[in-house]
Amino acid sequence: MTDRDLPDPATVEAVLGSHQGAWGVGGRVLAVQDLSPGLGRAAVLRVSTTAADGRPAQWIVKIPDWGNGSLLDSRDSQLDRREARFFASGIPGLLPSGLATPPDVGLLRHDGLTWIVMRDVGAALRRPWDPAAARALAARTALLHAPGAAHPDLLDTPWLEREGHAAYAHHIPSGHDNLDALADDPRLSTLFTAEQVRALHACLDAAGQLDALAAGLPATLVHGDLQPLNAGLDGDGTLLLIDWEHVGVGPVGFDLGTFVSLYRAFGGSGSLDEQQLLAVHGDALSELAGADLRPAVARGFAVAHLSWGLHLRLGPGLTAVRQGAHGESPEELAPHLDDIRSGCLRALAWAPVAGIGAAAGR
Questions:
Q1: Which of 250, 198, 204 minimizes the C-alpha distance to 224?
Q2: Taking the model in full, what pTM does it have?
């Protein structure tokens, strides 16, 4: 839901026509499709055009500061501006071969808002994720270390997100409340055992410990919201990444952790061998860095699961279920409860790696 009407084709055509860009002068907008995810303030549109010479093309138009917020309730004051700053900076040009952003990005201003226009890379994004593709991603994601290694000052860029693992730490109190309410809700009373509930409370209480662990790990450029819907492999194996609102500096292993944490929730098929993915990622990163970063990668991976992953699931995730946002029937709730349960139990399995002594078995 947004708090204003989305731009119609005539408006989009007028805005594009008033700015120079790869979309060309004299192009026509044929259709506008709303792709807005509903989890944040951005409006996302797929725009079908024809150029002046009649050639068809598809573009994505993203207007970051468009609509209402959501249960995610971001406290990040830079969130609506960071992706435009990323594309306006030289960072995309520093990404090595094997990593890519959408081509032909343009930044426009209209009615006081920034519009980000880019080629539609939906064909790559729609390719299904399976364990083999996840292994390719694990290797390619290590390449995000290269820009900061070659240009150390880049990691001091002030608008990059810091402590992204704690982006949803403000949901910790609601996470505790939701866990305490499980026993009295017949829909949720069997979601976790009593031992698992105690362990999850302990992990939420370990936020300061996780902060210290993350701060002590080697830092790297991170996408910050790496999950299956924001990534795709093109025909030559290049990893295409979209949605850079959370681009920042974080611990090695963090991006792989967020991808694995949300793999099942966002359409990944098959079971992932997390240790294998860590080995692929750690080997690639260590070779790139010229040092053995594999133990650090495992700890950064654990941080992603135990902070970002738990905070999202036990806070807004369980709140949405309890408020009926996903319906009331067992069939409607099943996929959401499966993600909450499986994601939280995977996180608990990594508690010992992070030095949290409250892990519970699956």
A1: 250
A2: 0.94
